[in-house]
Amino acid sequence: MTTLYIRYPARAAADSGAIQPCHFALLGDSGNVMQQGASALGSMAELVASARRVVLMLAAADVTLLRVKTPPLSAARLKAALPALVEDQLLGDPADCILALAPLGPDDSDGERTVAVVQRAWLDVLVKALVAQGAHAVSAVPAQLCLPLQPGGASAAIALDNAGLELTLRTGHQAGLGLTVAPEPEAALATLRALAGEAPLAVYVPAALAPHYQPVAAGMVGVSLEHDNWTHWVAAARTAGPDLAAGMATGTQARAWRRWRWPAALALLAVLVNVVGLNIEWLRMKRESADIRKGMEQTFRAAYPQEAMLDAVAQMRRNIATAKAGSGEQTPDEFTALAAALGEALASAGKRDVVAGLAYKDRVLTVKLKPNAADAGVRQQVNDLLKPRQLALSEGEGGVWQIRMAGGKS
User: Fold this and answer.
1) Structural domain of residue 342, as residue ranges?
2) I need a labelling partner for 257 at 20 to 30 A (CA). Which of 29, 132, 157, 303 fits?
């Protein structure tokens, strides 16, 4: 996944009216620099669209890092309380600013937290410019927290633009500042040395400016000069802290939704058609069922006008069986029919003398067997002989057999 890092110059340089170039670096999945250079922010459409993520490093002079005492609140409530907590430290209205709470750091054990503050309208313009060029995801971090920091030391960076020298200083894990000064190497290094206090100071300058600063740095105590490159910026940016653009790149989500709008509409239409079709089929089957039941009820009332109807099908079956019995016709589940079928099956199996007693109840013939007279093989053989007569044999409690019509309740 490629990531595009952009160092945006200070607003003081942009206010001069000239188009300011932004230094950028496109990094690959393994962290290798695939492309780097400088270009105007509005001329990076191809690079911005090709990267899965854009990290905008805001000039330290435009981002204020405040230390505030925070009450023990949940994350959501603390975010809502930030404007009131920083109001006394801001010159303007907190509503005109974006406030981002930095993650807990090693210096936050006393209950104080770092809050990054940037002007909302200005950052909104930058984020929308990147989204308009096809940015998939945009993050904005303070540039002062993108400098490497050695324990007990401080680091700084110097860049030249139309407004002069842009100074970036990092003095702690979540502490740093920035300002713009006149393009005088000696004054710039002296300012950084004074702001860093007595801590060892590493100053990163572009290779083209190094000859102008090397003699001055050599005469200062605790100041070392390093060539500026993207390696240390990227390494520190990964843990830079608060993302000031979180929740601002709404155009990205809107564009993603537009891409899926028609497929989603077609899927919804397909679901709707299927639901309507299923409901229509259910209503048709319901009407058919009602018509069949109505016909059965009419037939029952015509045949038995004096009988109260509760279950037409069950009552009809019972009445037919009663009528057959009354006419002398034998039904397959009567005692004599079941006993005769059992006798024929036992005779065919060669086991005539295994029965100790018979009982008949609820159209089930219960057969009590003599002790050790029939094993499982005999039972299976008798069952096979009863199947052609639509009868089923099962073994009940105490080793007794039960014979009933196939499909009847066990």
Assistant:
1) 330-405
2) 29
In a domain, 173, yes or no: yes
How far apart (Å, rounded) are the C-alpha atoms in residues 106 and 124? 31
Can you read off the two tokens belonging to residue 242?
């608060």
- Structural domains in the chain (count): 3
Q: What is the side-by-side strand order in the sheet with 138-142?
A: 33-40, 21-27, 3-7, 53-58, 138-142
Residues 376 and 240 in one domain: no
Report how far residue 398's alpha carbon sits from residue 235's, in angstroms, rounded to the nearest whole number.
82
Q: Are residues 165 and 215 in the same domain?
A: yes
**Strand segments (E) across 245-325:** none
| CA atoms of 99 and 64, how far apart (whole Å) | 10
DSSP states of 139-195 as a string?
A: EEEEGGGGS---TT-EEEEEEEETTEEEEEEEEETTEEEEEEE-S-HHHHHHHHHHH
Strand segments (E) across 175-246: 175-181, 201-205, 223-227
Per-residue pLDDT of the chain (410 residues; tens, 9 = 90+): 789 999 998 887 776 666 778 899 999 888 788 899 888 888 888 999 889 889 999 999 999 999 888 888 888 888 888 888 888 888 888 888 889 888 877 777 777 888 899 999 889 989 988 988 888 889 999 999 999 988 889 999 998 887 788 999 999 888 899 998 888 989 999 999 999 988 999 999 998 888 998 999 888 888 899 999 888 898 888 887 788 888 675 455 556 666 777 888 889 999 999 999 999 999 999 999 999 888 888 888 888 888 887 777 778 777 777 776 666 666 677 788 888 888 888 888 887 788 888 888 887 888 888 887 778 888 888 888 888 888 888 887 777 888 888 865 54
- Asked whether residue 91 is assigned to any structural domain, the reply reads yes
CA-closest candidate to residue 88, choices 102, 74, 69, 107: 69
